[in-house]
Amino acid sequence: MAKFIHLTDVHVVGEGKTMYGSDPAKRLAGAVESINAEQSDAEFAVIGGDLTHWGGPEEYEAVKKAVSGLTIPLVLMVGNHDAVPELRRHFPDAFDDGNGFVQGVWRTDAGKCLFLQTLQEGVHSGHYCEKRQAWLKAQLDADDEPVFLFMHHPPFEVGIAGMDGSRMLDSEALWSILEPHRARIRHLFFGHIHRPIFGSWRGVPVSCMRSTNQQLALDLRDETENPDIRRVPGNMEEPAYGVVLADRDTVIVHMHEYRRRTPEFLFIPPPDQREGRGYAHDMKLEGFEG
Ligand SMILES: [Fe+2]
């Protein structure tokens, strides 16, 4: 059984600096602490892009500091808020596909993970140029292993008008490469939307995780009058990361709200703590209002 961690959209803005009232670097450091404590048997963690918000040196420095204590290998991807040259200055070991794109492969017993760069610097929408397409095709043609795809931008709409315009726009070109290998593409992990989303695209199972800082609210109304000024509703739902368990049969994606701020209890208490019929379903959870 392969186990790996899907973090995404950490949006670091510098050490001690806040965004929408919370400190993304601190949130990322909290995720690292949680992974070390609870998921240290995972093969790797990936941050699926938007490592920083503005792509500046101070921001990558803060990312570096926040992840420095992680005890499992870390894979870095880029999103529309990143800058590849600055990433490389701070993380010289980041993937390079030979053409300068942050693309690479990680092999597990359950199949190989392919990390794609959908960032085209200077625009917020995702793109996948011919050079990157050639790399992906070569990876898929190389063997018959099951494949897990990781992208920042989804190549499909998710029903949130303010974000759908900045999806990965070269989706047909991407699909033409994937389609011949459809049967062995096990899952597509994406980010960018800052929400837990699960479904499928042309039969490929897909999932997105929350950001570790600001989230998109679930608001599917499209009240946009001017398409150039899209309404993007946000909120501060709890940060989360994905815990993926995969073997040759199954891919399971757990979303973990790692700050564990809600009360925790045993569904079935040990015998010496049981009352009456045994299961204390009427127990009081201190400080919790249902
Ligand atoms: Fe983002």
TrEMBL record:
InterPro entries: Calcineurin-like_PHP, CNP_phosphodiesterase-III, GpdQ/CpdA-like, Metallo-depent_PP-like. Keywords: Hydrolase, Iron, Metal-binding. This is Phosphodiesterase. It comes from Flavimaribacter sediminis. Coiled coil: none annotated. Belongs to the cyclic nucleotide phosphodiesterase class-III family. Residues 3-196 form the Calcineurin-like phosphoesterase domain. It comes from the Bacteria. GO terms for molecular function: cyclic-nucleotide phosphodiesterase activity; metal ion binding.
